[in-house]
Amino acid sequence: MVTFVITEFAHARLMAAEPDLDNERNKVRYIAVPDGLSEDDARNDEADPMFGWALEIAEMLKLKLAIFWTSAPGVLALILNIPKLIEDGIIDAKGSSKIDGKVQLSTDLPPLTSADFLWNYSGKQSGETNFQYFSGIQRNMKRCGWLLCNCMGVPFLCWPYFADQFYNRSCICNGYKVGLALSPDEYGIVTRHEIRRKLDSLVADDGIRANALKLKEMALQSISEGGSSAKNLDNFISQMKQ
What we know:
The protein has a domain at 152-225: Rossmann fold (3-Layer(aba) Sandwich), CATH 3.40.50. Helix content is 43%, strand content 10%. It has nine helices and six strands; from the N terminus they run E-H-E-H-E-H-H-H-E-E-H-E-H-H-H. The strands form three sheets. The protein has a two-stranded parallel ribbon. A two-stranded parallel sheet has the order 3-4. The longest helix is centred in the last third of the chain and has 18 residues, at 206-223. It is globular, with a radius of gyration of 20 Å.
């Protein structure tokens, strides 16, 4: 039996679309929990919730743990490296940057600056509050032995406004070079003319197209039989069966 912990709002939408999903004959069950919002609150500007505390409950009940990670690998690396960033004097205990340069978390990832720290762009709460939240996620994720990342390389036109989207822009435009970033004018507005200019440039850029196709090929190889993602998924399924 596999148990999914999701919000009551998401559970209601899921059951409305597929009522038979919540049937234990399928060897899957859903536990719905409140998301802290009232019924009248809008949820279309919410980030995907990370229920780190659910891992603590699973560990207490001696259940096998798994996290399905849908954000960029660089964001995962950033969260997992929070203790080391503090230890190395790159950030303080409140998440504030103590350096002006770039940080290289891995040779496989583009470097990041303090402007890429996702806790600086996480809604109306203060950066320190958001940092403590992500620090809690990091502590809980250490309990999990399997982390699955879902990614795909395609050309992008980037217009970030929240959390990890700013580092995603850096990866897409400066690291992997598979997209372009929209730039606001002197009033902070991204105009339709800017969108049109960047879209025309994106379509006409052979280098970006070639890089996107290269990433697509790498992704297809990874999920094909014998690829790294395919092997990881097979190993994950084997562990779940034990």
